[in-house]
Amino acid sequence: MSSLYLLHKPYRMLSQFTDNEGRATLADVIKVPGVYAAGRLDYDSEGLLLLSDDGALIHRIAHPRHKQPKTYWVQLEGQVDDTALNALRAGITLKDGPTRPAKARLIAPPALAPREPAIDPKRHPSTSWLELTISEGRNRQVRRMTAHVGFPTLRLIRASIGAWQLGDLQPGEWRKETLHAPRKAPGPQRSGKPSASRQRKPS
User: Fold this and answer.
1) Do the record's keywords include RNA-binding (predicted)?
2) How far apart are CA 140 and CA 62, in angstroms?
């Protein structure tokens, strides 16, 4: 069996447990020894981050070879049009090469806890929300993709990684799942129903 921790990483928090500059880290919200993040989420992005004490599981989740699809909810400046959506779906060329085709659709504003600081409506009077699913993990890829099609990202929340969903976790909350699979060859497919427990950010 392997333990997997699903964390809602807050805005302006590093995806690591230490920092020499005094910024917020994972140690502020999850007090479980011996766990490491499977991949990362940018300091100014929010949402689902997976952690485990099983190195093989971390590798299987995070390694680009396994192409875990990742879905993001993205608040964009301006009203996204069909031209931009079609470009994202077809794949666009960034400075580090063409992207794979993405799934992209307009969505209603998701039910999320307010961000601190909030998006200033005076500076950004017109915004729209996009659900974007990609199977790559380039540096700041989603932000670069939306900027490329003319709609800068204002807020970015990762909603899922493979089969794992952010669900109703609030910023700083996490839950534990026990995967009933051999530790030597774990994967995202779970046999049987995982056991889960949920924790809140320490006060």
Assistant:
1) no
2) 16
pTM, 2 dp: 0.87
Q: Would you name the residues annotated as active-site residues?
A: 42
Predicted confidence at residue 30, as pLDDT, reads 96
For the range 124-129, what are the long-range contacts, defined as Cβ-Cβ under 8 Å and sequence gap of 24 or more? 124/77, 124/154, 126/77, 126/78, 126/79, 127/75, 127/76, 127/77, 127/78, 127/154, 128/75, 128/76, 128/78, 128/79, 128/80, 129/73, 129/74, 129/75, 129/76
pLDDT in tens, 33-60: 999 999 899 999 999 999 999 999 998 8
CA–CA separation, 82 vs 132, rounded Å?
14
**CB-based contacts of 100, cutoff 8 Å, min separation 6:** 91, 134, 135, 136
